[in-house]
Amino acid sequence: MGLLLGAIPSAQAAPDPRLTITDVTLDKTAVAVSGLNTVAVQVRVKGGYDSAEPNDANMPLVAHLQRTGGTGSPTYLISTDLPRVSGTTQDGEWAGPVYVPSTADGKFTVIGVTTGPLIVYELGPMPADPTPVAGPTLTVTGYHLPKITAKVTPPIVPFGSGFSITWSVIDSATGKPYATRFRVLVGIDSQCDQDVGGDFPLTSPSGTVTKAYPASAANALHCLRIPARPGDRGDIAGLKFFVARPGIVSAMPSKTSAPVGTIVPVNGSVAGAPQSCKVWLQRLYGATQWRSVSSGLVRASGRFTLNAQPAYKGLIPYRVYFPTCYHYQSGLSKVFYIRGL
Which of 125, 252, 313, 324 could form a disulfide with 12 if both were Cys (CB 3.0 to 4.6 A apart)? Predict the structure, then answer.
């Protein structure tokens, strides 16, 4: 299971050459934030955008802050769209808040500024990198940070079966639920990283939410997000993961007998098609010791091919071992035999 981190825009291009930033300030150098709250820190940007286009007259700017200390879950903070509050597009000042969650515990430094609106970046790759600045640093002290856990039932979800997830949100400092109930976002796949819907249930008095899923959702990414208040950027906290699936392996040699030293292809498959995961062909040595003798990778189809090579005359036991890979558990094929001639 992995934490849902603060969104980090994916760099796609150089900084916009028309944007010049001369100064960035914060109205606070340190804040304390507790629990599920956020604190507004005012950002003021001085600079200009070299454009006489009417459409750019009301263009906002966006400040980007990156973690430079501490180990909280967000690694990146982004301001709201900062409107111009004085001057002109070519030489003006822009100001507005960045909302800081308790989970930002640590230090954040303003590393750059981009043009807005931010929705341009949220809907696709960044059209430009932030214009770099040697900005101020904000020290965040977080108290009573939320701790999110998830219990999947059954713990290893069989193929073709539905399942449920019970999510729990507690105060990490007290080990107890928060005093008030609140809404969370429970989503799958793209809902875990983008604002594209999902369910918004209210937590129970014990801080839990339980959701049932059909078998078709077993390979999806699942998440619980604690959204910030409307207008804030990012989440206060979140958790996302894939449910565990069984490692079901089948294998069969292309020949059941072959001269000693001859290569015999062994074909098989792993349920769920965990592409690029490794599989090992094992041979029995003595009465109880299995040793790996060759390996291969699972293809996109879920199938694989390994090479056996009978080392002596007689009936030789083989099996295929699939070690834990991604969210698939380890598994073994049935034992099969190749007779060395």
Answer: 125
